Amino acid sequence: LKEPLPVRPSDTALERLNALGELTQIAEKLDLTDTLDDVLGGIPAMHISVVVQIHTGTTTESPVHPMEAGMVLFSYFNDAIRDAINAPAPSSVSKDAWLFESEQHTRPIYNGRPASLRGPPIAIYHSAFAQLKDDLQRLDQLNDPREQRRVESTAQLYASLTKINPSEYDRRETVSHLARLLEVEVGFEFEVYAMNNVVEIEAFHELNYEGKVAVVAQVEVKNEVGWSGNSAIQNVLSLRKRLAGDQCNEIRKGTCCPCITICIAGPYISFGGAVFADIVIAEAFTDYIFLGGTREQILKTSRMFVAVARAIGSLRDYYGSLRLSSSRPGVRRLLPEPTYLPGLAPDNELVLTGRYEYEGRVPDNYCRALFQGTYNGTEVLVKFCETYHGQAHRLLAQAGRAPHLYFCERICGGAMMVIMELVKGRDARHYFSLNMPEEVMDDVRSAVDLLHENNLVFGDLRRSNIIIKETEDKKLWAMLIDFDWVGEAGKARYPPFLNDSGAIFWAQGVVGHGLMEKQHDLEMIRSLNP
Length: 530
Fold this sequence. Notes:
The chain has helices at 13-19, 23-26, 36-40, 66-86, 90-95, 97-106, 127-136, 147-161, 173-181, 231-244, 249-254, 295-320, 390-398, 428-431, 438-453, 518-527; strands at residues 5-6, 47-48, 189-195, 198-209, 212-222, 259-265, 268-276, 280-284, 289-290, 350-355, 369-375, 378-385, 405-410, 416-421, 426-427, 456-457, 466-470, 476-480, 487-488. The protein is of the alpha+beta class. It folds into three domains: 5-48, no CATH class; 72-320, no CATH class; 339-527, no CATH class. The strands form five sheets. Strands 3, 4, 5, 6, 7, 8 and 9 form a seven-stranded mixed sheet that branches. A five-stranded antiparallel sheet has the order 10-11-12-14-13. A hairpin with a 2-residue loop joins strand 6 and strand 7 (268-276). The longest helix is centred in the middle third of the chain and has 26 residues, at 295-320. The protein is globular. This is Protein kinase domain-containing protein. It comes from Sphagnurus paluster. InterPro entries: Kinase-like_dom_sf (IPR011009).
């Protein structure tokens, strides 16, 4: 409230509050990051200063309010900072499998270890990652105006890293080779740690301006594979600690801290990236590449350095032109910023407001890249995935058997981006504790029949992929969601990995990478009411 309201007499407090007028006129909306000190500092005792407006409706049937969705993101973000600060030394975690497993349970990084701790593709968070992933798929098409010098420098790196060195300290020259290959004119800073007679090298390239630090690239060097720890694990954990430090406070408030990661272990090198969004997500863009001395391998790796140098240059430009606001941090920096292919952008404005907290979601499971937002003012669900059959979705949407589909295209970095209607309903798994009524089963059969008439197989026909909503006359209406697996009968294949723990009933003949058949859908329908 702009002017605190006396609590007493308490029996008339609500009446007196309503008499003041609309909340928009008598109060200022709180920001997600306001603290109790910000709000209550200087307020006299026994006065009302904060009014909480309750939005009615059941949380299971309605999308999370944007304000609440943003608060959830900030909660995850603050947890990630706390985890980074309290985590043990990255070098100790990278050397101990038991400790790493324990840390992934309590203070995880989302790097796919184990598979359940996989985050969204980081290419959806920054164009530098999207461009890098695309460039790595088309190395032969990259133009390198510095080809002669870069190939020569790559050969020198090969010669350096294939040496058998007694310690990591002797790998120091690796950093200078990398600086030349990646066109980092100011070079990498590097730190050498000597603990228990073990020397470790950690290199990083930072931009420092106006007292603000941004980490553009981070490198972890190990003398050999398997010696003194896992370079990929240590690199990301070290980066997390660096980004959680006070020197990066300002950058954290305005960005998701995109950073290129490079791991070296003996004669092997790999490239990846990481972001510090609401969670810390790390992704490897390449395997460990053997730095052998063949001409073909040198040329191929040189082109990889072209792509990585381009990404680092993009991040340098991004951070260099960044104008950090003195106002409180907003939620947008923690959400994806997809990069669209030319001519394939959505027709209307998309504003993401938070992650989509679907019913039954395991708190630490971020494998499904689902977000909520508004599209031209309409509430929508936004999904990023590897594959999606937009034609099948549109076919059922036209018949009222799927949410309205606004956008479905592949974006830079390789992911599919889907924008669809955010249906106010519940999935059949949570809506029905026993058998599904026949009217709902008829809706499901109708949807599947329509797909089969077009020679398409749905594939993943489980209760969790059936949305139930109530019509105005209180009738139940069923829709199918998740068209990731849909494909042509007898030609498309199931994903390589299926949940074979026994928790899910699969039709006979459904196996990893097996052919998809219409009969599978029919058997899955029968299993909906066991």
